Amino acid sequence: MLGECHAHLMMNAVDYQRAVADNARAPREDLVRGFLEEYRRLGISFLRDGGDRLGVSRLAKELAPEYGIDYRSPIFAIHKAGHYGRVVGFPFETMGEYRDLVDKAKAQGADFIKIMLSGILDFDRYGVITSAGLPVEEAGEMVRIAHGEGLAVMAHVNGRDCILTALEAGIDSLEHGYGMDGSCLRALRDEGAVWVPSLAPVANPIGSGRFSDQVLRRWLDGQLETVAAAAGMGIPLAAGSDAGAYWVPHGQGLRDECRHLLAAIPHRARLEKILKEGERQIRERFCRQ
């Protein structure tokens, strides 16, 4: 069984504000155990989280061995103050503050560092990313600091220019990556980062009535086309559903992700081979002993 290479155990796939309220005073162990049990029930034994600011990921890291799950986490994500990222982590103003957050994550048992280098997709306006990125010099220094501590870098990033910045900065995995063009694909191939395209957060809500289906389908169609091109170029791809996001349930989200990926790589054996290799690279780079 493939592993889930991008999830958020803090989130409940239904209501982010409710998830925050549930864990605001302290992480809810019963909820975390319920999600871990669902992964175990479905035979998913590898789980890479994207972190959160409430300590849920830290608790999950402690509990996961009871469920036979190899759970890896950044503990929390790091973002530049005034930019997107508060939903999953903590901000920094200066590079000194960034270093302090890297040290804090490492002290709390982080297996890697997660940085936020863009906003998210606007599900009602196609082509719009909700927050700007960072200069390549700043992103590059963030990656260098993390690598200097022996930690790989997981980067949340969307939008052509932000993606090119992230790849030039030397990230180890590209999360989401909506809005790529040919120059992004070539950079992705040349830099050797693993791409986790996360189709489920866009595909699953189609028909829910919460967002514009027309916009969702345009985002999805573009991403499917890019995934197909990436596979043809031999770019490493891994399955990460962003489980916990709206309408992406824990456990089931990975099955949904693989089903959506089949629309881009419509040969099950080939898709499985590609995703297993991508996961192997994720494990090699992100599973700090």
Entry keywords:
289 residues; alpha/beta
What does this structure look like?
The structure is a single chain. The chain is an alpha/beta fold and 289 residues long. The protein is 44% helix and 12% strand. It contains 11 helices and 9 strands. It has helices spanning 16-23, 29-41, 56-63, 95-107, 136-148, 160-169, 182-191, 200-203, 213-232, 252-261, 268-286, and strands at 4-7, 46-49, 70-72, 77-80, 89-92, 113-116, 153-157, 173-176, 194-196. The strands form 2 sheets. It has a 6-stranded parallel beta sheet with strand order 5-4-6-7-8-9, with helices on both faces. Strands 1-2-3 form a 3-stranded parallel beta sheet, sandwiched between helices. Helix 4 (95-107) packs parallel to helix 5. The longest helix is centred in the C-terminal third of the chain and has 20 residues, at 213-232.
How confident overall, as mean pLDDT? 97
* Span between termini: 22 Å
The ordered string of helix (H) and strand (E) elements is: EHHEHEEEHEHEHEHEHHHH
Low-confidence stretches: none
